[in-house]
Structures are given as C-alpha cells and as structure tokens.
C-alpha cells in the first residue's frame, strides 16, 4: 500500500493505515522502532522500523509463539498480547505487555531483530494490562505502571504503580493506585499508560473515555507515587479523528517532539497517526494543532527517506510467506510446506468443523485501511471430497470465495458467508473450475464494503451481494488464506496460492492521491 509520505515535505495521517493497535514508539540513535498489540495471533509483537517516523517497514516479530502453548492452540482474539511498551535500557531492547488472563510479561534482546528471550512472567494476576516500565537514570530506581481490565478483575479507570527490580524480572511491592480517575469529574476508562521522566517530573501519558470517543490525557507528579495532576492534551475537536487514543512520545535527534497514537476505524481496526508535539510555557505537552489531531503536516526534520509502508504483496518464494502474515493461533508443523518454486502450499488441514473463526490454520494479514483490490491465484490439489481453500475477509462475520472438491471429484468455485454467531451458508456464485484453478478477488470499498469475484477462465465475474466487513473483538477485520478438509484418517492434499497482490484503488478524477 502507498506510503503516507506526500513527497513534498509533508505527510498525511494515518501514517500506518491498517490495524497496528496500541502502538508504542522508541528512538535509538537515528532509528525509530514501533510495536503494537497482536492479541492471539502468531507470531506476535510486530517490530517496525523507520528513519523519519512517516515511512515504516515491518522487520520482524519478537514473539514467535504465545505461551502457554496449549492456551493458544485455537484462536483467542480477546487474549494474548495487549498494549505492549517498547523501551531501550542497558544496551537492550525491552517489550512489556499484559495478558489479561495471566499477568505481565517481558521479553528483551540485544538487537531489534533479536534473538529475543522467551516470555518471562514478572507478575501473575488477572486483569493486569497495559504495563509500562521506567528506569530512572537519576536515581537508579526502576518503576512500572499498569492499568486494569474490568472484565477480568472487576476494576478499571485507575492506574497502579510498582517498584520494579532493575533487571526487569519482578515487581518489588504490592503496588499503589497512583491515579484514580473515578475521582476526576468526567473521566472514565483510563488505560494505556506510558511512563516518562521529563524536566524533573514523572509523566504518564494515558487515554480515557473509550477507544472510539475518548481523549488523550497527561499526568505529572514530582514523585512516582504521586500525587498527580492531570490535563486533556489531545481530543477530537472538530476533526474527523475520533477518540484520539493510546500511544507514545518520542524525541528526535534534532530535538523535535512527536506523538504516535491510534484511531479506531471499525473493520479497519486501529490505524496509527503521527502528531507534532511541543512543551508549552506552563510545562505541559501540546499535541497536534493546539490539542486536536492534524490531517496533513510537515514531516519531522530528519534526513529524507524513500517512500515505504509495511509490505502486503507476496509471491511466496520457495513456499515461504512474508513477515506481514500471522496465523490465527500458534502454528503446527506441516501447515505450510517449503518447496523449490514460488507459491504458498497450504496443507488441507482436517477439522471436525470448518467455521473459519474457530480454525487456527488461517494465515492472515491486516485489512488495508484504503480502498483497494486484493487478488490471489489458487490451485486446489487436494483430492479428498470436501477439501476446500480460499480467500477470506474474516471478522465476527466473515465471507470467503474459493474452490471445493465435490463428491464426484470435480472442483467447483464456491462463495460462502457467515453472520456474527451464525452458521456458514452459500453467498453467491458457484460453478465448475476447470483444472481446479481460479483467480480470486475482493474489492474493498468505502466503509470496508467488500465485493467478491473470481476468474475461472472466462474473466472476472462478480459473486453475491456486497459484504460489509466487521471487526473481530479487539481486532480489525483480516484477510485470510486457508485450506481445509473433512476430519477423517489419512492425508488430504494441499492448495497452492500464488501472486498475492493488493492494488490501491484509483482516486476519482480531479482528486489527489
């Protein structure tokens, strides 16, 4: 997908136009890094790199598999990695996150590309979310602040602070509520804290008011355990950026301050914006245009960089898939096999049910935030009656188009659909697919409205009604590739996907891109 860089010294928000939820940002030297929530998908903890805060590439993941493995053998979209914090201390990169059902974890590495340590549980407990550490260079003390998930703990709208062992392995006390937003008129659902030291103050940047309708707050205190005073420093105002929510502050090597945050956009998930930031005469941060989000702004005063955005296209060289892909649960051996040519060879995994929301063997990437067309070539090699493979738009509701082998051995094009909490049923076009091949397409329009079509040898022909993509609990809708077969003994064959492409829609005549 296109870069947010407009090529004239300015950029347009969002700088990451897809579901990079709960971003945190960090500078080390001349390099900028970003991580985001990955919930129950694997690999988790994506790692993005930039030199200018506008042009980003995905360089890896810090979490190959979620632990314990048994808990994530099936999709868990409301669990796993929530709101990580990315820091650099003692010549190592550190990521802390909360699993709402297990507690607070961390991993660390000498380099952003690893090797990363296995997850270490520093504090067990339910409802402990959004942790952020701070190593105080002035005193040598280490601290950690976190929020609460009411769904697990019965508690929310408050931040708890702890002393932490300087090696990041454990918390040293039971914790103290350092911000109770129930005592602040009009504040609710305070969460996502990011902890900093600046100008002699402890600072916590944290959103409240809910992801779709809230605001970004700032809290400051001379001592870590408080008392804190607060201020709203970023809100929607008369802009189209609802909720401006959770993110992080970064200072460039040129001395400029910037703030990265997300915006909730329905099926497109939580897209990432970049806001200018400065410190006012009264010592408080001023974010955006006097406290409201900017749509277009001059780029940071950093060396020019070539346009870049996280990859979407894939030729699957040697059967390997790119970093942009994640399984919907911890993967198992044999789901995808390497080979000598291009193309993704997915095994038709046997399963008692074939509801895509319940299957761990769906390979996914984020639904683009801009209007586009998604295409992939498919050949179904599975000989088993009932073997199927396809291209899906996956959320609480889902729809897919692909190929299925019938009881007579022929391969047919099928288009299926399932409402939220509903059973899968036919959605549109069906017919023969000569040689078991098809080119599949989903055109994604405004409001994540999806039009499916396929070419089985006579050109693309539309199938079914427009499908309105939906989010998936905390996750935006996903593009998915899958191969399945009925549950019974013996191998079921495979499906081969080639030439996956995402092509931006052409802007209407007379408009700029």
TrEMBL record:
InterPro entries: ConA-like_dom_sf, GH43_C2, Glyco_hydro_43, Glyco_hydro_beta-prop_sf, Glycosyl_Hydrlase_43. Pfam families: GH43_C2 (PF17851), Glyco_hydro_43 (PF04616). The keyword Manganese does not apply. It comes from the Bacteria. One of its GO terms (molecular function) is hydrolase activity, hydrolyzing O-glycosyl compounds. Residues 314-502 form the Beta-xylosidase C-terminal Concanavalin A-like domain. GO terms for biological process: carbohydrate metabolic process. The keyword Hydrolase applies. CDD domains: GH43_FsAxh1-like. Keywords: Glycosidase, Hydrolase. Belongs to the glycosyl hydrolase 43 family. This is Glycoside hydrolase 43 family protein.
